[in-house]
Amino acid sequence: MIGLLRKVNRHVMYLLIGVAATFSVIKDLLKVSVATAYVSGMATSTLVVASTILSVLIFSLFARLLVSVSFRICGAIFTRSNGMFSPFPIGFTDYESTALAFALPCFLLGGVLVLPALFLPTLSEVLDPLRTLTNWSFLALGAAYGVKRYGHDYDRKSLAISLSVIPLVLVGLSLFLLISEVVR
Prior knowledge:
85% helix
């Protein structure tokens, strides 16, 4: 399935990532949109449609930015950790297609997991952490796939470190946010 998703046009994949990411957070998006519409006196359907379209575009652009930045960070860490002036073993198009191929099912599965909480809000305390666990699992699977596929000619350890540093930083940030939320 990953091989099939890697062959899809990258602009279509970015649009699909935006739709899937919006689907993943649809519960929160609807809550905020409906509350804002109620407070401001706007039509609920107008604000929901506008915020959904805007969030698809923002998530698509944000995915593009994250792929570019993470590629640069991984390349910088790999060349420093390796100690040689060798290039990062994954080209940008391969890195981009692999990252997007793992992100699409991740967001779709996260949206399916959280969908029951839309109708039963008390389930969100259980389903939101499951969505987070799904996201981090797909990040780890993507890093493992990259090491397995591209690590044969290069130093596997430094490649594994460079591919896993972004998920580790994001896990640390989400852990910090979780702790600050609990303390608050």
